[in-house]
Amino acid sequence: MHIKRFKGRTVKEAIRYVKEELGENALIIDTRRASGGYVEILAVVERDAEEKKAVKSQREAHLLKELRELKEFVLCVMKDGKRQVARVFTSLEDELVKEGLDRRLARNLIFKAFSSMREREPDTGWLKRYIKKKLLDSVNTTDPLSSRSRTFMAFVGPTGAGKTSTIAKLASLEALKGRKKIALFTMDTQRAGAAEQLTLYGKIIGVPVQRVDSVEELLRAVDMHTDKDCIFVDTAGRSLTDTEHIRSLAELSRAIPYMKLNLVMSVQSQNEFLYETIDHYKKAGIDYLTFTKLDEGGLFGAVFNAALYSRKPLTYFTTGQHIPNDIERVTLKRLSTMILNNTGGTDGTL
To answer: What pLDDT does residue 82 have?
Structure first.
């Protein structure tokens, strides 16, 4: 049995949240008025072991299929006595994993590389160039601020990812070098001193900063800054189990459909945490990915893991604490230096 409370502006909206999360079989056991004019519903749903087992993620099913294919490939190799192929396969896998690439992704890429190889004997250099090219071909990059049109972007992500400092760096660049009119809003009312930190950054670079506590306040604030070229919104970092937070972000996206969500994550995060974070924030409709703390380590496979898993374009990297210098726009040339560095070249020539 699973019991949970849901909040909505109206009874109809709260019931919709119940059905979205618990399904049509959910039973409403209590309805009452909550603070702030919200309606609160207590709902329950029965979930037995068989149902939990049946509700497997599409990602897990896909990965299992890939592992079966790879297992068959390795068995065929060993059966044919091609031990050199097996050694090269293992060596490439270990190298990619050491660079931070997800082992499952590494195996899939190597499998495809071997399948495309025409020579009878494995050419390690050719295989590495093939894998690198495939990775770069599969990753999208973009710069949301390159457009001349107005930019309205909210930065979301887990606590400690570096959202506030990323906003400060971008605002500095656009205000001082791009000569754009900037406004900064903060919706981070949870972290002590968060609003003060962004306000201080705003004073340094000469841009207005305003705290907003609700969607309505944000809409009113935006109407007061129609002359601005860029509006950046700082949001609170919350636990991935906080469904209320993700629901409020989804509400924000619905209320302001032209606002883009940029998911900020640390490159030092473990792969499974990155996947869980992406799954969590996808419910609010993320548009871009930004990675921080590249200066804290030399393994960047997580960037590729997240980009391929989310299918969202990479936008910015941050590489230190200095504002505005320690931020850069993601390019394919930069990405080519982050994986299989000893293959040479950035054009992926085979």
So the answer is: 57
Q: Are residues 65 and 28 in the same domain?
A: no
Percent of the chain with pLDDT over 90: 35
Residue ranges in the chain whose pLDDT is less than 50:
49-52, 54-55, 78-79, 81, 344-349
Query: Is residue 280 in a domain?
Result: yes
Same domain, yes or no: 111 and 223: no
Instruction: Look at residue 350 and tell me if it is in a domain.
Output: no
Q: Give me the number of domains the chain comprises.
A: 3
Residue 336 inside a domain? The answer is: no
Same domain for 86 and 114?
yes
Domain coverage including residue 313: 151-330
Are residues 249 and 198 both part of a single domain? Answer: yes
**Rounded to two decimals, what is the model's pTM?**
0.74
Question: Are 70 and 16 found together in one domain?
Answer: no
Packing angle, helices 243-255 and 215-223, rounded to 10: 30
pLDDT tens digits for range 156-200: 999 889 999 999 999 998 888 768 899 999 987 666 566 788 888
Contact 221, 212 (CB under 8 A): yes
Cβ proximity of 122 and 86 under 8 Å:
no
CB 256 within 8 A of CB 214: no
